[in-house]
Amino acid sequence: MRKNRFLGVWTVLVFAFLLLPLVIVTITAFGEANVVQFPIQGFTFKWFGKALSSNSFMSACFYSLRLALVATLLALLVGIPGAYALARYSIKGKQLIKSFFLSPTIVPGTVLGFALFQVIVVQLQIPYDIGLLFGHFLIVLPYVIRIVGSSLEQFDFSIEEAAWTLGCGKIKTFFTIVLPNITSGISSAFLLAFINSFNNVPVSMFLIGPGTTTLPATLMGYLESGYDPTVPAFSVLMMLATIGIMFVVEKTLGIAALSK
Amino acid sequence: MAFFNLQDINVSYDKKNNILEGLNLEIEKGELVSLLGPSGCGKTTTLRVVAGFIEPTHGQFILDDTDMTKVPVHKRNFGLVFQSYALFPHLSVFDNVAFGLKLQKVSKEEIKKRVENILEVCDLKGFEKRFPKQLSGGQRQRVALARALVVEPKLLLLDEPLSNLDAKLRINMRVEIKRLQRKLGITTIFVTHDQEECFSISDKVAVMNGGVIEQYDTPENIYRTPKTEFVARFIGFENFIDLKRKDAHTYIASDGSEFVVDNGCDKEDPKGTIRPEDIQIVSSQDNVENKITGKVIVRTFLGKSYQYELDTPLGVIVVNGSSDHVLQAQDTVCVSLPKGKIVLV
Amino acid sequence: MKNQMKYLLLVPGIILLAVFLVMPLLSIFLPTIFTEAGVTLDSYIQFFQDPLNVRIFIRTLRVALITTIICVFLAVPAAYYMSRCKQSVKGILMTISIFPLLTNSVIRSFAWITILGRNGIINQILTSIGIVEEPIQMLYTEFAIVIGSVYLFLPLMLTTLAGVMDNIENDMMEAAESLGANRLVAFLKVILPLSLPGIIVGSTLVFTGTLSAYTTPQLLGGNSNTVMATFIYEKSMSLGDWEGTSVIAVIMIITTVIAMKVLNTIANRLDKRGGDNA
Question: What's the CATH architecture for A54-258?
Answer without folding.
Answer: Orthogonal Bundle (1.10)
